[in-house]
Specification:
Blueprint lengths: L19 E8 L2 E10 L2 E8 L8 E7 L2 H5 L7 H15 L2 E6 L9 H14 L3 H7 L10 H9 L4 E5 L3 H9 L3 E6 L10 H11 L38 E2 L3
Parallel strand pairs: 4-5, 4-6, 6-7
Antiparallel strand pairs: 1-2, 2-3, 3-5, 7-8
The structure holds guanosine-5'-triphosphate (GTP) and zinc ion.
The site of zinc ion has 4 residues, from loops.
């Protein structure tokens, strides 16, 4: 389970001006405000699109660093697809924030140990949970405190969180950020990531309705009626409308 640093009672720990800098970032998708900040020994990034300050229900993605998936297009996880889908959704909406969290690599164990878990998955058929514990490593030690701090700094009232992981909602709220809704971010399963997605659903409690109940690794997994948010489906409003959370 994640070991989050808690916000002190009564408010967010601020970000010291010496630990934050911002400029425009012109990308193929459009122009974002790039807010780089330091927190707890890591350097993170918030990409802000459109006007977010003072608004409620801002579309937000808290994205955990995955060098292999985000930069090099690894298919064994769906991180790269989710990064693309989240940015597309934010731009389509006209405003939103993507917080890119460093130090989250391998759910917080780091790149070298993540690659060690990948080797155990390939050679011994272990899933992402058992491959970590077999190495004596924690399953998830990500801290969402820095994300909460930058969202508070950006003056965001409440968020609609792009995620399939219910723990992220609880964690963000424990840091004082109100989550008005969770918006599913469903990447299409493929032969390479089916085991990864199945473990997330069955062992970590992620809400992944697009993943078939009985894994068929050698068949292309596209269950009928699944609300898969691929580039074509991403234009449809329904998967992005979100499910309001009730207290
Ligand atoms: N330990 C370990 N971590 C992995 C592995 N593959 C990907 N990761 C990391 O998993 C993190 C992403 O977490 P996920 O559990 O996929 O998804 P999530 O961020 O909790 O949930 P969503 O918001 O729905 O995307 C990234 O930091 C990846 O580096 C693996 O095989 N082993
Ligand atoms: Zn990944």
């Amino acid at each position: 389970m994640a070991q989050d640093s808690k916000t002190p009672r009564g408010g967010h720990r601020g970000i010291d001006p010496s630990d934050i800098a911002e400029s425009d970032l012109v990308t193929t998708r459009g122009t974002f405000r790039m807010v780089a900040f330091r927190a707890d020994g890591e350097e993170h990034l918030a990409l802000v699109y459109g006007r977010a300050r003072g608004r409620d229900g801002v579309l937000v993605r808290m994205h955990s660093e995955c060098l292999s998936g985000d930069v090099f297009g690894a298919l064994r996880c769906e991180c790269g697809s989710q990064l693309d889908l989240a940015l597309n959704a934010i731009v389509r909406e006209g405003s939103g924030v993507l917080v890119y969290l460093r130090g989250h690599e391998g759910r917080g164990i780091g790149l070298v140990d993540k690659v060690r878990t990948n080797l155990l998955q390939d050679e011994r058929g272990l899933d992402t949970v058992d491959s970590a514990t077999a190495l004596g490593l924690p399953v998830d030690v990500r801290d969402y405190g820095p994300a909460a701090r930058v969202l508070a700094y950006l003056g965001i009232g409440s968020v609609r969180l792009l995620s399939n992981n219910p723990h992220k909602i609880r964690s963000l709220e424990s840091h004082g950020i109100r989550v008005a809704a969770r918006v599913p971010l469903l990447a299409a399963p493929n032969d390479e990531n089916l085991a990864y997605l199945t473990a997330k659903r069955d062992r970590l409690g992620h809400d992944l309705p697009q993943v078939p109940m009985v894994p068929a690794p050698r068949e292309r997994a596209e269950p009928e009626g699944a609300a898969v948010l691929d580039d074509a489906a991403a234009t449809a409003p329904s998967p992005l409308s979100g499910t309001p959370l009730t207290p």
